[in-house]
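Encode chain A's predicted structure.
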Amino acid sequence: MKKTLENKSFFLLAILAITILMSGPIYGQKAKELRVMSYNIHHANPPSKPDLIDIDAVAKVINASKPDLVALQEVDVNTKRSGVNLNQAKELAKLTGMNYYFEPSMPYQGGGYGNAILSKFPIEKQFFLQLPGKENSEPRSVLIVQVTLPGNQKVKFASTHLDFKNDAITALQTQAVVSYFSKEKIPVLIAGDFNAIPKSEAIQLMDKKFERTCQEDCLPTIPVNKPNKAIDFVFYKPRKAFVVKHHEVIAERYASDHLPVFAILAY
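Encoded structure for chain A:
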């Protein structure tokens, strides 16, 4: 009888150990961390200095958090506004020591204006998705890269900036994003300026298919002085791919008109 009880106890302990192991982000492996940032950089123009382009200030903000992946919005490349010889995406990649991908959402002042991605990891694949919009509205898009994280985990990381004038268009663009990733087989992270608050139709559409790094505690990201509205987010899917270890809205009030969002995820 004693031996039977001992065997039963051993069996229960074994089941408990397996359950604990399987509850981690990756079965049988020690969790690794991924550092992600989303930052609308306002074409590197500090709001307090309307005529200045300060790309070094943006790089300083990024470098301070040591992110692995950065989603950038409102990036100028070779425009008259920021400098016909200044490729902001390339320069930020140089100043941060990261790889980059830029595609313009629209032509602007002789150059391009849109989203960019910075990646600590080599960019293996890159994709561009034009989003739907109304005639004469500012074009919007999504940039996507595929990278391999330490531990040989492949992910897709996206940067986007949605419409701010029409809530119905913002929701339509969100639906396009959700549809694009609906059959994706590897984990996805998408970050950016959604121009929508958590209770909006657009964010509720995202919440049906993605997880947010903030839930009820999404701190405001605009304006930089006395912020009162959360519109910048980091999303991911599937839920089991990551565990949120940290979410922060960085109180940096000089470099841009948005506060950057920073998250640490275990995988």
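Residues 32-266 form a domain with the Deoxyribonuclease I; Chain A fold (CATH 3.60.10.10).
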